[in-house]
């Protein structure tokens, strides 16, 4: 396959565009990995409202942080239980 035909290949152009977007995303420290960025681009290409998508991503990140915090709190709490008759002892 010649260089010219590779440059005109739609998949090659899409891959190159995603690579550039990923580099920009990393520079801007968006926190989006390649797979997530690809999904975001796909959703935007399908007409999803960018503002709504931004809000959803922020909400999901907040929820993930809360879950991680809860998990950390639970793992740092002693895992012993007091006996049922503790007050009687």
Automatic annotation (TrEMBL):
Gene Ontology cellular-component terms for this entry are: gamma-tubulin ring complex; interphase microtubule organizing center; spindle
Which InterPro entries does this entry report, sorted A to Z? Answer: MZT1
Keywords on record: Cytoplasm, Cytoskeleton
Tell me where it resides: Cytoplasm, Cytoskeleton, Microtubule organizing center
Q: Which domain of life is it from?
A: Eukaryota
GO terms for biological process? gamma-tubulin complex localization; microtubule nucleation by interphase microtubule organizing center; mitotic spindle assembly
Similarity-based family: Belongs to the MOZART1 family.
Name of the protein in its database record: Mitotic-spindle organizing protein
Q: Which organism is it from?
A: Anaeramoeba flamelloides
């Amino acid at each position: 396959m010649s260089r010219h035909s590779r440059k005109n290949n739609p998949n090659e152009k899409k891959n190159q565009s995603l690579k550039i977007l990923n580099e920009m995303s990393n520079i801007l420290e968006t926190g989006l990995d390649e797979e997530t960025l690809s999904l975001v681009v796909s959703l935007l290409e399908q007409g999803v409202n960018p503002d709504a998508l931004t809000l959803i991503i922020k909400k999901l990140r907040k929820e993930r942080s809360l879950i991680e915090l809860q998990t950390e709190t639970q793992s740092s709490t002693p895992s012993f239980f007091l006996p049922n008759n503790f007050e009687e002892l």
